[in-house]
Queue: 2 jobs
Job 1
Amino acid sequence: MTYCVAMLLEAGLVCLADSRTNAGVDHVAIFRKMTVWERPGDRVLVLMTAGNLSLGQAVVNRLNEAVREEPPAGLLTVPSMADAALLAGEAVRAVDRQHRAALRAHHTGFNVSLILAGQIADEPPRVFQVYAAGNFIEATPETPYFQIGETKYGKPILDRVLHAETDLMQAAKLGLISMDSTLRSNISVGLPLDLLIYPRDSLKVGLHRQITEDDAYFTDIRGRWSDGLRNIFSSLPDPAWKV
Amino acid sequence: MTYCVAMLLEAGLVCLADSRTNAGVDHVAIFRKMTVWERPGDRVLVLMTAGNLSLGQAVVNRLNEAVREEPPAGLLTVPSMADAALLAGEAVRAVDRQHRAALRAHHTGFNVSLILAGQIADEPPRVFQVYAAGNFIEATPETPYFQIGETKYGKPILDRVLHAETDLMQAAKLGLISMDSTLRSNISVGLPLDLLIYPRDSLKVGLHRQITEDDAYFTDIRGRWSDGLRNIFSSLPDPAWKV
């Protein structure tokens, strides 16, 4: 599986993806789930994929075809993030048409989902979640994050802490804490992580960092978070019920 | 949906279940998911059900048929918890046979899972998880808890804190914290809660408490937990990466 989260903040965007895939326990591997297209001064787009790896890669390959034309087209020239989400949805549908019959013959569902985040020119930053049917929804200040993959372990802390006003570094920290809970409880999610921070209106990638087991910051906050949770838990009064 | 958790501790058993069911958002209702059979001095058995409510209730009804015979049989007379789990699995299979064809005709899967916890006479306390096929697994000191229903939101804190040596009141507190994360992130799980605490070798129910929104203890620790999480999160250093 996978865990990816994107946050839509007043200050910009934070995207985080793990990199573990598994096709059975004897086929666990590292694949990046995050693809970034950047045209400094004009746009930054970040795509994260979850579900069947072959389908996610096929969607990225289709989107890259237009990007690699001369002159570039597709995601590098669409005028808005909504148009970019439409392109991503069309790519999903094209992959579905291409593989549907064969997948059905193998009793395999069409299982892919995307998060597309970015900013194009004068538009504000936007975040879309694209479903396997190619339709999509957009994040808003009231619901400023989307998750795909193994979403549940890391959701409670997002629900408790995240607001559209959260600053970029706090949001990055929050994403890593949300990922930590997921890593601890689900072995299908694993390091390294891909973290991208995009400051609003910068129109270039602010930070794109691969976080491995050796990352001093991640190691530090994981330890502090774990100790802190245990400390709060210990500090809660036990029930006084008579048994 | 549902969230139920049972913990197998050196000191005894703690079982916790929510009580919300939903068959679509216009059909949300309160149903108890926990059934208790007690023969003081001889045995205590606790069954929790998740999945399709009609199937869970059908399993409980089947198990109650033998219990209500004169003299009582079934769960009230089997010599071991493993035999009780076999009976529960047979009840699941009987319900499957009874409803399989009709469910298939309505494109509804056979979706039910059980946790059966308890102690019979000289045996130690034991906890089983029974699957929809009627097969089952047993908890051990290395993996001292089982969950059914919406299990993921509340799993990380169990993985961080729970050990077989955790005492009963700490385990009850932990179950409530695990439930709190689930309640906050998934509206298909709701109050009131059914909490049962069973001290090892007592062969009677120690505490069976219904926890509502008015429960002072639960309200207190929910608030403290939420504040504590936010405080630890704030105390973690922000990343010093240059963006």
Job 2
Amino acid sequence: MITCSAPGKVYLFGEHAVVYGENAICCAVELRTKVSVEKSNEIIIESALGCTGLDHKIHPYVSYVIEKMQQFADIKGIRIIIKSELPIGSGLGSSAAVTVASIQALNLLFDCGLSQEDVAKTAHEIERMVQGNASPTDTYVSTMGGVVMIPLKKKLDLIDCPIVVGNTNKFSSTKELVGNVAKLKSEFPCIVEPILSNIGQMSVLAESLVAQGDYETIGKLMNINQGLLDSIGVGSAELSNLVYAARNSGAISAKITGAGGGGCMVALTREDNAEDIAKAIENAGGEAIITKNTEEGVRLESLHG
Amino acid sequence: MITCSAPGKVYLFGEHAVVYGENAICCAVELRTKVSVEKSNEIIIESALGCTGLDHKIHPYVSYVIEKMQQFADIKGIRIIIKSELPIGSGLGSSAAVTVASIQALNLLFDCGLSQEDVAKTAHEIERMVQGNASPTDTYVSTMGGVVMIPLKKKLDLIDCPIVVGNTNKFSSTKELVGNVAKLKSEFPCIVEPILSNIGQMSVLAESLVAQGDYETIGKLMNINQGLLDSIGVGSAELSNLVYAARNSGAISAKITGAGGGGCMVALTREDNAEDIAKAIENAGGEAIITKNTEEGVRLESLHG
């Protein structure tokens, strides 16, 4: 049994603006989906969602991965076990992580010879099959790890302060939110277009700040980015609530991460107050996870179990 | 005894941006400060703050008004009674209203012959004496009423939907908030300057929408304006809380009005749901007032008591 894992990600800057070609900065986080694979007589996929065979409804990503990998190897029976630290559908890239880790696990088990670039590319193909118009960002960052400037895929320095994620546990549809922004943009182009380029501009400013490890200044920009996200209609009562809870308890910064509406917010914190901020988020009704940036993308966890 | 009243105001668009010469739209609201004056043997000022003589600490605006009006008339003894529907220091222009109403009451009692323009100008002088660097907006709108585009002082059509004000009852210092925005602007000019001009641009767009009575579209712009205010750091947990409570209970729009930090938010509502929105604001911990736009600025309420 081979086990591979792949990380989730948060957006430090640029969600939504990236849809319009603006720059964004994504940061892989040490919250991983582990996928274990072993040869078997039949196809079995086990996860928190249930135990199925090839099933494009319950396990769409893994089912498409198996079919795709059958092009590279003679995969008949396979048992796949998925364990994830990433809340599903919360904007942390859980679908990218399970896709990337599954591809790599099968790649290694069947010696398919896919490079890391191939894994990222294949994972993006799978996400497009399932979601329609998926961006390559999540799958790329999950495969490569680190801090990545999108769309140029430029690796930046690592973020080494604690990162606290707050989950509203409220479902939101990325497709719907992206559609709402597009609608607002077409209704008020002279208002919304400058907001989107302003968000893009922040990533450009932040690049050198990341190199300097100047988290205080990065944080001020993230807080501005939060307001701009709220301005284009992707905020919510729950998100603002967690954002202000984090800021008011001493976070360096706090903003929505991902599509907004519901899902998650992210806070940068100091070494000594990550726990306080996590508690404040919990007290405000969110679910908090303390994590950190990870240099490693998809990786082999174990060759034997 | 002569009684005059003057209204407070809300910003539909443009607070903070107006400091940098951008356009803003202010709307006089039917929440008034009434000032009654009668000749007396001594100077007596009565308000919710206490009963004093000339007192530049407890009644700075009215004390300066008396001294200023002594230039136009032989005012020795005077009794002034102040009653206000406007919460003090909450960004609704309570100091402008008391100043304007006092000037006009003394103007009429002593037949000083000041025109409405003179009243506005004199009131602005008084606000500058007390506050240092006061803008002429509050005193102008309180004197003239209506809906006013700043800085050109252009009168727009009236807003005829209900207006709900939500007070966080949290003190905030306008001076400090304006200073914080200036600091953020000097730290990130290429980010903050476009935000301020974007806010200004909204007033330009809104002018024709006000003429058309298109409150739905005005509301969308106000909601964008709210996020932009949050982005420049003048939001707060309490304000966001009331803003989302109003929106989620069906308000057309909801945003900060005034300097932010604490103070008030304002919502436009439909005729049939102003009560619901007021209740939602109260349930979220705010103090709600249902009001409406008023065409009348300073006015004579009564010549006899």
